[in-house]
Amino acid sequence: MTEIIEVREMRMEIWESDDPDQAETPWWGMKWVPISGSDGDDHFIDAGEGVWQNHLGDAVHDDQAHFLGWPSLGSWLHEVAEAMKHHDQSSWAGAVTAPKVNSSGDIHW
Questions:
Q1: All residues at 6 or more sequence positions from 28 whose CB lies less than 8 Å from its CB, including other chains
Q2: Which among 21, 14, 20 has a CA at the least distance from the CA of 61?
Q3: Residue 39 — very low, low, confident or very high, per pLDDT cuts 50/70/90?
């Protein structure tokens, strides 16, 4: 939880809401809540009103953000769980790439 707060505060400090480019190519949004990330690239959920409410998005550190097509965190997590469940079935094709498990038991996505 601490990391979520830190990432959100950092993004809000950098974000320039009055930048005209934000309207067409947003880097961050007022109602976006980070849920995961690494090296300044963050996945978020849109907690605002409107067509993208609850949708999962990706905000990279040096380019515009975009939505990933998942209507909720729950729908994405369901697909991740399905990919993990079927990781050893080469014929399975899901919306999320199935992980590969190496001989040491490590998971690679």
A1: 11, 12, 14, 15, 59, 65
A2: 14
A3: confident
Question: How many angstroms separate the CA atoms of 106 and 109, rounded?
Answer: 10
25-45 in b/e form (b: 16+ CB < 10 A) is ebbbbeebebeebeeeebbbb
By the 8 A CB rule, do 37 and 7 touch?
yes
Count Cβ atoms below 10 Å from residue 100 Cβ, excluding itself: 11
Query: Does position 47 have pLDDT exceeding 90, yes or no?
Result: yes
102: tokens are 């190496």
Query: Is the CB of residue 108 less than 8 Å from the CB of residue 99?
Result: yes
